[in-house]
Amino acid sequence: MTRLASMLRAGAAGIALALLAPATPAHASKCETGTVFNPVTKVRWTCIFPITIGGVKVGPSDPLGKALDAQTAAKPLCACRKGAGLTFGVKVSFWSPNRMVDVVTEPGCMMALGADIMNTHGRLQGSQTSLSDGTNTRKLFAQMHYYVAPVWKMLDMFTDLPCIEDDGFDVALMTELLPTWQSATLGAIVQPEAVLFGNPAAGLACMADSAAAAAGKVIDPLFWCMGSWGATYPIAGDIHFGDSVEAWAGLAARGTFMMGRLGALTISSEDGCAFRPQPIWTKSRYKLQLMEPVKGGQCVNIGRPGSLWTSAKHAPGKDNAQFMLFEKVICCAGISTP
Fold first, then answer.
1. Smallest Cα–Cα separation from 115: which of 325, 323, 320, 324?
2. 215 and 206 in contact (C-beta within 8 Å)?
3. pLDDT tens, residue by residue, 74-103
4. If you ran DSSP here, which 8-state letter would residue 74 be given?
5. Dihedral (C-alpha) 227, 230, 231, 233: value to the nearest 10 degrees?
6. What distance in Å separates the CA atoms of residue 58 and residue 67, rounded to the nearest whole number?
7. Cα–Cα distance between 258 and 118 in angstroms, integer?
8. Residue 14 has pLDDT above 50, yes or no
9. What Cα–Cα distance (Å) separates residue 299 from each residue in 46, 97, 198, 256?
10. Would the pTM count as exceeding 0.85?
């Protein structure tokens, strides 16, 4: 985390210099106050299915987690060693709402809190620009906020399961403090492997990921691809788009990938015994649900084409979005022995 701390310190210094610069004309905040997170009404609870308990599946099938569900059903029993003790039990798997992501054109607009906490005097603003390269596409720039939001813990539900996070609600990252998010060039310096994936061959490989995403699946080895949403690199706030909602999802997914590169992303192991670091994400373990500006009717896998889910999701005049990030969790629920 030393690297992340140094980046945050550098970003804070940059923000301070920007705020001390000569003032620009007053900028009215477009941050809404009615977006405070309510887990009961904003979360699409059907997204937690299917649930597999000891090899028995409950709820509709999901092609995204099909392999993991089959593995859990084939090996329903589990045993975990924790120190000198052992836990014997059955595997339980489900989709857990653990994180939230804001994608905002208004810097400092914390949608989960319903408040604008950073007056940047019109700087660091989001933008949309048209590209004069004959592709009829546009480029979106926006800031990203990543929250630790263990909904089960917040609702005091299923707290006896060992794989339910015990952390409290927290703001894990604000890209306003990261110079690398503001500039793709700086991002390439911090993440030099981005150069390897900025070539036509790597781009062509993403076509297969895009086709898989349309079918509700992803190809995990193609970690630099986000299906129809673009590429994870460069890790910055610029993204090409034709659909605004799809672009919001792309930046939310890229922010999740960035958390892994910063050493702040974990997933549960397939034996259900522990959480392990994810420096490179496993895309099939995540899906997104739009909460603002319009509550989404479904959870979507990383890269799912916008034509299949974004219709009527962009309310006029509202350019800030909020997503719930669901993670596929596997845990060993049972009895501990001394």
1. 320
2. no
3. 889 999 988 778 889 999 999 999 999 999
4. H
5. -160
6. 16
7. 22
8. no
9. 9, 11, 29, 16
10. yes
**Each residue of 82-102: b (16+ CB within 10 Å) or e?**
eeeeebebbbbbbbbbbbbbb
**Greater confidence, 8 or 285?**
285
What the block records as the tokens of 3 is: 């690297």
- Number of domains, the chain: 1
Distance CA 249, CA 323 (A): 8
Cα–Cα distance between 196 and 19 in angstroms, integer?
A: 36
Percentages of the chain per state (helix, strand, coil), in multiples of 5: 30, 30, 40
The single-letter code of the amino acid at 105 is: T
Q: Are 213 and 307 in contact (CB under 8 A)?
A: no
pLDDT for position 131? 62
For 272, the domain range is 2-337
Location of structure tokens 């989404």: 296
**Cα separation of 262 and 244, whole Å?**
27
User: How big is the chain by its Cα radius of gyration, in Å?
Assistant: 20
What are the CA-CA distances from residue 110 to residues 147, 280, 305 (Å)? Answer: 10, 27, 27
Kindly report, residue by residue over 145-184, the tens digit of the pLDDT.
Answer: 999 998 988 888 877 777 787 778 899 999 999 999 998 8
What is the pLDDT at residue 208? Answer: 94
Q: Is the pLDDT of residue 290 over 90?
A: yes
Burial class (CB in 10 A: 0-12, 13-18, 19+), 55: middle
Q: Are 290 and 245 in contact (CB under 8 A)?
A: yes
Scanning the chain, the segments in alpha helix (DSSP H) are: 2-20, 39-42, 66-74, 151-154, 179-182, 184-190, 200-214, 244-261
Q: How far apart are CA 296 and CA 249, in angstroms?
A: 12
Q: Which pair of tokens denotes residue 199?
A: 């070539």
